[in-house]
Amino acid sequence: MRIGVDLGGTKIEGILLSPSGEVAEKIRVDTPAQKYLETVDALCEVIEQLQRLSLPKKCSVGIGTPGALSPSNEYGLKLMKNCNSICLNGEPLKVDIENRLGYATRIENDANCFALSEACYGVAISARTVFGVILGTGTGGGIVIDKQLHTGPNRIAGEWGHNCIPNSVRELIAQDRQCYCGRTNCNETVLSGRGLKQSYLERSGIDLEATEIARLANSGDVEASETVKTYCKQLARCLSTVVNLMDPDMIVLGGGLSNISQLYTQVPSLMNEHVFTDNMLTKLSAPKFGDASGAIGAACLWPLD
Ligand SMILES: [Zn+2]
């Protein structure tokens, strides 16, 4: 058994994962709102409870978080960065958890955990190279090769959400978009839920949530359908740059917007026009795991023992 914990903005979910990928136990608690030390406490309590359930054996522990762990700073500390749960930023989360538990853990961002869960036990189980994309509040990504996460010295591998959109996507938005990271026209400003919302607002003058736009598109509403059609083009053009770079066997979409069914029927052929090959063989797939992917992927940060 391995323990995987997903630290989300509202919930902490911890699981015991069997060697065959079954969730044997699951614990969910509320995430303490914007309180760092209470968040550490809550995480450790969930982990300790799962360790008791797995007795007499002690399990490895992987944790999925928003943002990422920085490389060591000048004091040798690895601090959290890029988290949308702001209270984690600048905090030594890994060290604090390990000091409290008394053993080593592994921490990765939630997009990496998502990609790993799908590569190890999900739709991408037969794929050698996998690009996992989260299309939700933000636009994250993770790269898995031979069921191993690729991270890199800056620990930002797969963070394609903060690449600049291609010119062919700039043509599809009314005006430049500011990203929270300080740059302009990041992929995330177009492909996240907020991006879709902005595109619908530009087209219709109406401010709706992304989930509502997707629902209206499915019910045949013209403005919403056109917005989703454009979103498919935007996604295809942004993803074609990923295919040119890493040529993955499979791209798996996750996050709230991955429920939009048109993505799977329209995006592959649209990508074909932009990828540097005549017949693209990369598969685009919906995920197997929904909200459970974070905890499953976190458990997979350690090899089976
Ligand atoms: Zn950005």
Describe, in plain words, how this protein is organized in 3D:
The protein is of the alpha/beta class and 305 residues long. It folds into two domains: 2-112 and 291-299, 2-Layer Sandwich (Nucleotidyltransferase, domain 5), CATH 3.30.420; 126-285, Nucleotidyltransferase, domain 5. Helix content is 37%, strand content 20%. The chain has helices at residues 36-53, 93-101, 110-121, 167-170, 187-191, 193-204, 210-218, 222-246, 262-272, 293-299, and strands at residues 2-7, 11-17, 23-30, 60-65, 68-69, 80-81, 106-109, 129-135, 139-145, 148-150, 250-254, 283-285. The strands form three sheets. Strands 3-2-1-4-7 form a five-stranded mixed sheet. Strands 10-9-8-11-12 form a five-stranded mixed sheet, with helices on both faces. Helix 1 packs across helix 2 (93-101). The protein is globular, with a radius of gyration of 19 Å. The relative contact order is 0.16. The mean pLDDT is 93. The site of zinc ion has 6 residues, from loops. Zinc ion is lined by residues 162, 179, 181, 183, 186, 188.
Give the key terms.
alpha/beta, Nucleotidyltransferase, domain 5, 2 domains, globular, binds zinc ion
CATH class of the largest domain: Alpha Beta
Shape: globular
How many extended strands? 12
State the major sheet: 5 strands, mixed
Q: What percent of the residues sit in helical stretches (DSSP H or I)? A: 25-40%
Number of helices: 10
- What is the typical, i.e. mean, pLDDT? 93
Under CATH, the homologous superfamily of the largest domain reads ATPase, nucleotide binding domain
Q: Give a list of the ligands.
A: zinc ion
Helices and strands, in order, run as EEEHEEEHEHEEEHHHHHEHEH
Q: Flag low-confidence runs.
A: none
